[in-house]
């Protein structure tokens, strides 16, 4: 079995893979990641593992992970099964790179647009040969709502929702319409443009707010909530081979 670990600024996501099947997964606060992963390594017979992190990792944690028979700490030197055509490859986030590999696995030799609706929204394009062409980054839904609250004197902080009316009659719904529906229409527009200009019909959606968009859009999309973890698993398998 393989262990896959994706550590962000505050949380750590992990999964145990048996080939391509997730047998266990979870999310913990970053400060609990050492104890949680340590327990998993004792419980499961882990033959290989990969760690992706947005920031520095303690030596104590790395010492635990290096006891795995085959271990990778993902960086820009790690071999991957796709071509990265980004002009500034060192600036490409590891989560975007892993999601690209996961999207390529699901693309079946066709171009694919994969969209991650998290803290930021990234819209990324892979061609049919599995080359990462590039993408766009914009504020996520919650970031937009927080910005309107923080940078104004009186606008409240509201939770994401999808009001029924197109023109709201309360400030709360007006904020939700602007942030949420505005985001959805932005994404729909990119999907339409990508279909026309690049002939892309494969659309993959991931991230915490993916479910909101799935219920709104009329575009045919596939939701893959574990796309980053799946991509990390593919990178690990590629290097084990």
Task: Briefly summarize what is shown.
This protein has helices at residues 33-43, 59-65, 94-107, 141-150, 171-198, 210-216, 227-240; strands spanning 2-7, 11-18, 21-29, 48-53, 70-73, 83-84, 112-117, 120-126, 131-139, 202-206, 222-223. The protein is an alpha/beta fold and 241 residues long.
Question: Your description of this structure?
Answer:
The structure is a single chain. The protein is an alpha/beta fold. It has 2 domains: 1-73, ATPase, nucleotide binding domain (Nucleotidyltransferase, domain 5, 2-Layer Sandwich); 75-241, ATPase, nucleotide binding domain (Nucleotidyltransferase, domain 5). The chain is 38% helix and 27% strand. It is built from 7 helices and 11 strands. The strands form 2 sheets. Strands 6-9-8-7-10-11 form a 6-stranded mixed sheet, sandwiched between helices. Strands 3-2-1-4-5 form a 5-stranded mixed sheet, with helices on both faces. β7 and β8 form a beta hairpin. α3 (94-107) crosses α7 (227-240) and α4 crosses α5 (171-198). The longest helix is centred in the C-terminal third of the chain and has 28 residues, at 171-198. The two termini are 14 Å apart. The mean pLDDT is 91.
Going by CATH, what is the homologous superfamily of the largest domain?
Answer: ATPase, nucleotide binding domain
> For the record, what CATH class of the largest domain applies?
Alpha Beta
**Mean pLDDT score, rounded?**
91
User: Topology as H/E string?
Assistant: EEEHEHEEHEEEHHEHEH
Percent of residues in β-strands: 25-35%
N- to C-terminal distance: 14 Å
The CATH architecture of the largest domain can be named as 2-Layer Sandwich
Cα gyration radius (Å): 19 Å
Q: Count up the domains.
A: 2
Q: How is the biggest beta sheet arranged?
A: 6 strands, mixed
Q: What's the number of extended β-strand segments?
A: 11
